[in-house]
Write a structure and sequence with these properties.
Length: 125
Amino acid sequence: MRTFPKIEKLCGQLRIKALYQEGRKLTVWPFRIHCRFPEKGTPPSETKVLIWAPKSLFKHAVDRNRMRRLMREAYRLNKDEVEQRGWEVSFNYMDKEQQSFQQLEKAMKRALKRLVEEEEKQWEK
RNA sequence: GCAGCGGAUCGGCUUAUCGCUUUGAUUCUCAAGUAAGUCUGUUUACAGAUACUGUUUGAGCGAAGAGGAAAGUCCGGGCAACACAGAGCACUAUACCGGUUAACGGCCGGCAGGCAGUGAUGUUUGGUCCCUGGAACAGCGACGAUGGCAUCUCUAUUAGAGAUGAUGAAACGGCUACACUAUAGGUUGCAAUUCCGCGUAAACCGACGUUUGAGGGCUGCUCGUCCAAGUCGGAGGGUAGGAAGCGAGAGAAUGGCACAGUAAUGUGUCCAUCGAGACUAAUGAUAAGCGUUGUGCCCAUGCGGCAUGAUACAGAACCCGGCUUACAGACCCACUGCGUGC
């Protein structure tokens, strides 16, 4: 089932701080992505995700909520492959315009593909 | 009928598929765990048994799940902490008369004056002194004032100053000044506050001080009062998790009706309604259709058919009463002017 319970959300001030300081930085328009992958060989666990839209782009809380919800749905419906990889990922919306759900879903598919590639690269090192 | 004026109410709906948060309250079911209760034994604390009660986790099923402004944070309260909170000064706010309220700078009624309008009505002024006159002159302001908010820098005492950014007129004449009088205001705010957990220190270094009393007790200053043998600073260490506060104990609650009052409002214990509670922050996503409505065309007056647009402002964060600002559209009531008919 494509559920999205709380255990798959990234919580806690310390973990979020750590992610932004130590994590890799990618850009897959319209997302800015911070991510951390576990060491090779660690047992599978839930991938934790943080999704947000900045106040500087959308000044009304209604608009920020809407973008967050759309991104959340796009992730929820396409996460099957990455669900148990134990990542910590943050998606930050960057476009000034509000994109439609279809656009966001395409972008999310591209972003997840890119993340899988990045993880393989890290393992090779 | 057209135009206007004042006030009240509402502000989308349905289905399908997938998902989120809370919850089991007259009211669940299943699975897994746990040995507190319970039972047995010895013995006075252990051992064993048990899933009936309790409790934890998960699944199923059921129930509930943003607003009229949830917004701005501009007033007034509840609530909490600080010493149950004292006196004086300073500071801030208010200012015709009366009423209303838990309270208010709100609301209701009235008086006198100015301005706008044919009018319904709107708007504005109103203590004393001074004075021709009260924001009169002068200055700042949608090229963003004043205020608060966020970030950064500097000085430094918990404070102050400056810069940048967003906000957008904020109690009323947008803001800024001044003497007196009266009245009101203790300060800080849910990041309050309490408990659990983690950690632990009556430790180390420096300074000051022990009754002629250092220092402190969250208020701008002084006094008073209370605590007091320790106090302050440095260095270093830890935490930044969970629960309560927090809403089914919701209440100065909302509506109807009756009574009192011109009204705001009050009384009733008459009838009904209201049940969100997140915490990097739920209340949603997709698709189809309906409703409402603007415009154009068609048939010929049905409130039909077709095409094409519009469907706003906006998201709870401790809770109430107001105010202010934003807002597609719908609808009701009272009143005014003009026109027409009886």
